[in-house]
Amino acid sequence: MWQLLSVRQSLAFDTLHSLVCALIASKVDYCNTILYGAPAYVVQRLQAVLNAAARLITGTGLSEHIAQILPDTLYWLPISQWIDYKIALMTYSCVCGTSPAYFHGICRPVTSVEGRVMLRSAICGRLVEPRTSVECYSPRSFHVAALSVCNNLPRHLHSDEG
Questions:
Q1: DSSP-based three-state secondary structure for 126
Q2: CA neighbor of 26 nearest in space, from 56, 43, 50
Q3: In whole angstroms, what is the distance from residue 127 CA to residue 106 CA?
Q4: Full DSSP string of 31-52
Q5: How far is Cα 45 from Cα 38, in angstroms, rounded to an integer?
Q6: Do 91 and 127 contact (CB within 8 A), yes or no?
Q7: Neighbours of 139 (CB within 10 A)
Q8: Which of 10, 15, 75, 128 has the greatest count of CB atoms below 10 A from its CB?
């Protein structure tokens, strides 16, 4: 990444942004959903890489805060929020039926179960919790992560609400 520092002045902002996204951000994004529930030091190391990439693109110094530059200038989320976003996105595709076949049936809204349409959980747009105990799955598995991320979303963000 630091080799890009030498050519930064000769590239336009959009070009440098695209180049860094192709080289760095896409690597950070690859399979980041497996990081759900990972120790904080692992997430912090990835956040440090993302912060360094943002400093390279924007020319921000080490003594300046980078937290506002990520969402305001580059439209990047912090790693922990990005992980939750990707899980919520995968869950949404499961609920809509656009996910791969091996995800079908994992995430179902409570409204899809007969006799539960009028429950408070159905009105709130929650997902069905499986009858099997959560202990049989890892807390970081998609079965558990999808439920915890999506059922903790604010009510206005659920797919039933529009």
A1: coil
A2: 50
A3: 10
A4: TGGGGTT--HHHHHHHHHHHHH
A5: 12
A6: yes
A7: 12
A8: 128
Each residue of 81-139: pLDDT tens digit?
A: 888 888 888 888 887 778 888 777 777 776 666 666 666 565 566 676 666 555 556 66
User: 44 pLDDT band (50/70/90 cuts)?
Assistant: very high
The answer to whether 46 and 36 have CB atoms below 8 angstroms apart is no
Is pLDDT of 75 > 70? yes
pTM: 0.73
Q: How does DSSP assign 68-103, residue by residue?
A: THHHHTS----HHHHHHHHHHHHHHHHHHT-S-GGG
C-alpha to C-alpha distance for 89 and 150, rounded to whole angstroms: 9
Summarize the confidence of residues 46-69 as an average pLDDT.
86
Report the pLDDT averaged over residues 8-25. Answer: 80
User: CB of 93 within 8 A of CB of 99?
Assistant: yes
Alpha-carbon span 76 to 66, nearest angstrom: 11
Going from the C-alpha of 95 to that of each of 69, 106, 125, 159, the distances in angstroms are 33, 9, 11, 9
What is the structure's pLDDT at 162? 40
